[in-house]
Amino acid sequence: MRSIFSHPGHASLEFSPQERVERVRASSPEQQAQALLFLSGYAPAVFDAALDAVEPIDENDDPDAGEESEPFCAACAERIGIFLRLGLEWRHYSSGGPGGPFEIFDPGHEPVVTWRPVTSIPAVGVTS
């Protein structure tokens, strides 16, 4: 297994998604626990989003909840996401449909992350 560090102190981003999956499979439970603890301190928002994404939905809490949920801002109800090319911060965005194009915008406040069932996105140019 190759190291995640290409130079002391500089993380390497050279792994493909498949290589990352293989690294997780090859790591011990102790390594996985330590990696999660590291992530919780290094990128707490990403850590929280990852745990929220894999948390089972309790049908008793919300009987209308589906199996999929999406992040949104509790302050303004707009969609939010993490765009890795721009960093690990949550950002407000709008989109014309699944897969984009996405428009990142600044509403004048920091995102307040919460989750809701996935909502459908109206088609661009279609009015009700």
What is the gyration radius calculated from CA atoms? Answer: 18 Å
Helical coverage, percent range: 25-40%
Runs in which pLDDT lies below 50 for 5 or more consecutive residues are: 121-128
Q: Count every helix, treating DSSP H or I runs of 4 or more residues as helices.
A: 3
Average residue pLDDT? 78
Shape: globular
User: How much β-strand is present in the residues?
Assistant: 15-25%
The neighbouring-strand order within the major sheet is 4-5-6
Distance between the termini: 55 Å
Assembly form of the protein: single chain
Q: What does this 3D model show about the protein?
A:
With about 130 residues, the protein is an alpha+beta fold. It has two domains: about 15-55, no CATH class; about 65-128, no CATH class. It has three helices and seven strands; from the N terminus they run ββαααβββββ. It has helices spanning about 15-25, 30-40, 45-55; strands spanning about 5, 10, 70-75, 80, 90-95, 100-105, 115. It has a three-stranded antiparallel sheet, with no helix packed on it. A two-stranded antiparallel sheet has the order 1-2. Helix 2 packs across helix 3 (about 45-55). The longest helix is centred in the N-terminal third of the chain and has 14 residues, at about 30-40. The protein is globular, with a radius of gyration of 18 Å. The relative contact order is 0.12.
